[in-house]
Write a structure and sequence with these properties.
Rossmann fold; 16% strand; alpha/beta; 13 helices; 13 strands; 40% helix; 6-stranded parallel beta sheet
Length: 367
């Protein structure tokens, strides 16, 4: 029975997409047949959360995943020690960073290379150097690297020097929140939802500038969730005089997410760069049309089911907002196409492909 120690030090309930990946992957791994043992090495914050999705025993590390310095020390040194104590055959680090050196094979899932490819868009420039150094250490120690798109595979090879044949591309999946009722779509007028943190690469300002270009009578309501504390977008909303059209929200609970998915006309994501796009699949799975910036990753996820726009062209985004808000036939066509597209991505597939990578890493012959 292979014994896998899973590095959960970054799992604190505040990390968004990487936590969704970890949670849904291990829920699906637990549902697969086969004799595998998983041991979670949890952060202090994560151990206080509901970890019922994890298919094995969880060890509380006592290490804070929110204190960057303590967490970095834990990633680099303590994961390896825990793996030795537990007699692990393999370590999996599912959140981009991992141990510097392990006695047993390690598989690292690297979600993106944004600190390398777009350092100017990182909101924490003081951490850029340390993060890049830690990514180098994790990659050098890894027997195999999993990533979530061909874009990231290419960039990992470019920036970290990992041969492409040692990097496995395994796309994510996305499921809509429970309780979504799409019969409510349109009941509150045209509503465009946008969900995510306020890091610069998300480019939320484009959405605000785009709606300001539309005549008042043609403006959909824009709801942007995911802010924490004082919202950096508030000044732009005020300066452009679109406070009647744009609602800035903080983190919302599951019930409110389901309500927003129920009433939404479309989801919009104007990002300059991404590692993947879970919100795209979640929205498409719910039958919500999706407007995406025209970047390679979004084409990889959305295929022909989305409407695309240049993220640097506010007028192009405004035209997309007008079209999806006023053309019910277009919206219906996109909803159907989106459901079909989302059905191609499943967590079962992600889990099966991931376990195959684990098996290759454990093999004495590297493939």
């Amino acid at each position: 029975m292979p014994r896998v120690l899973v590095d959960l030090l970054s799992y604190t309930g505040t990390k968004g997409g990487m936590e969704t990946y970890t949670r849904e992957l291990y829920r699906a791994l637990g549902d697969l047949s086969g004799d595998w043992e998983y041991i979670g090495f949890a952060s202090r914050e994560g151990a206080r959360l509901d970890l019922g999705w994890f298919p094995g025993r969880v060890i509380e590390s006592g290490i804070s995943g929110e204190n960057r310095f303590v967490w970095a020390w834990g990633e680099l040194t303590q994961v390896a020690r825990a793996a030795r104590r537990e007699g692990a055959d393999l370590v999996h680090a599912p959140a981009t960073l991992g141990p510097r050196r392990t006695a047993m094979p390690t598989v690292v899932t690297m979600h993106d290379m944004l600190y390398w490819s777009h350092p100017e868009l990182m909101s924490t420039p003081l951490y850029t150097g340390p993060v890049k150094w830690m990514e180098r250490q994790a990659a050098a120690n890894a027997a195999r690297i999993i990533t979530i798109s061909p874009t990231s595979q290419r960039e990992i090879s470019r920036y970290l020097g990992t041969p492409a044949e040692n990097i496995d591309v395994i796309p994510l999946a996305g499921e809509p929140p429970q309780g979504v009722d799409r019969t409510l779509a349109g009941t509150e007028g045209p509503v465009i939802i946008a969900m995510g943190n306020r890091r610069p690469h998300k480019n939320w300002g484009a959405l605000i500038r785009a709606v300001a270009l539309l005549p008042v009578a043609e403006r959909p309501r824009i709801i942007i969730t995911g802010g924490r504390g004082e919202d950096p977008l508030a000044d732009l909303v005020q300066d452009l005089g679109v406070s009647d059209a744009v609602e800035l929200r903080g983190w919302v609970d599951d019930a409110e997410v389901a309500r927003l998915y129920s009433i939404a006309t479309a989801l919009a994501i104007p990002s300059f760069a991404e590692g993947f796009s879970l919100p795209t699949l979640e929205a498409m799975g719910a039958g919500i049309p999706v407007l995406l910036s025209d970047i390679e990753v979004h084409r990889y996820v959305g295929g022909d089911a989305a409407l695309y726009f240049d993220p640097a062209d506010d007028r192009a985004l405004a035209d997309r907002l007008r079209a999806i808000s006023s053309d019910s036939q277009l919206a219906a066509h996109m909803a159907a196409a989106g459901r079909d597209r989302a059905a191609e991505f499943t967590w079962e597939r992600t889990a099966r492909d991931t376990r195959e990578v684990f098996e290759r890493a454990l093999s004495p012959v590297r493939h």
